[in-house]
Design brief:
The protein is α+β, with helices and mostly antiparallel strands and about 350 residues long. It has four helices and 15 strands. The strands form three sheets. Strands 5, 6, 7, 8, 9, 10, 11, 12 and 15 form a nine-stranded antiparallel β-sheet that branches. A four-stranded mixed β-sheet has the order 1-2-3-4, covered by helices on one side.
Length: about 350
Amino acid sequence: MSSSHPRRLATRLGVALALWGIHCHAEPVRVRYVAPSACPDERAFLTRVRSHTDQLELAEPGSLARVLEIRIERAQAGYSARLEFVDSRREHITRTIGGQDCNEVTDALALTVALLVEAAPKLQAPPEPPAARDNPPRSDAVPPQRATTPAPRPARPPPRAAIWSLGFSGRASSQVAPDPSYGLALGLSRLALWNPQGNDLAGGWRTALDINYQDSGPVTFEQTSVRFRLVGVRGALCGAWTLREPVFAELCGAAEVGYWAARAERSQRLPSPRSGSAAWAALGLPMSVGLAIDGLQVFVAAGPWFPLNREQFTFSRPSSVVHEVQPISVSVDLGLRLAL
């Protein structure tokens, strides 16, 4: 026991000196952490990392640094986490962790990050070759050439996160009929995020495309039942922001093309059925707000629309205008999106 005690003391002293050397030459990193609201936030995650190691040094805002990407998502069996990191030797490191409880997954991630930080190679002088120590220099020896160290590359910006979603919404508008028309819309959207930080304002660009059908139902005009329909395709480009978890907002520029049709049934005023149809085109500026919870978004969108072709539906003999598309209309959506 007395002989093993100095050996253990020397071992601990060596470990302490090694960790001191790592701390002295630690290279700052930037942590990008994305997780559902049910998981610990970024500050809690960094606290757990520091409970395992004191070697984690965070880079100053705006400075060039290697990026540690961490993303936790809901999975069928619980939670799935992915860690991506490019070390100082430009080697790409990827780790995946799964579990039923997000706290357990976060603890495992924190330990993994601590091990990566402590295992990263640090800046230190290369050891002298044994031949140079054992053999004295000779006058006819060729002087050693100094090794050239390539200039470090600037750190690449982190990849943007892209999320595809399937959307479904109920739609009401005043575009095609005297009374509001109602319908359904189904489409796809893609959200490309920048700066997806847990404690910072996250945002991105959403591109969306949907098909929709609207129907006014019977509208009575001079004791005649008239029905208006619209089948359209709507595209939008939106700026998106997370205001405060889980609330987000989007402001969009949108366009819609489609087919407009109206039909009047036979009545005392109209001896024979009459119909009309035309191409449809409109521009809009909708804005939406909603909640994002674990890959599911519930939102309300509304805004003005400006029809490009203002069609009329008229009765003849004597001529009377049943409906004329107005220069400005309103469209409202209530829907949800599911991340794919």
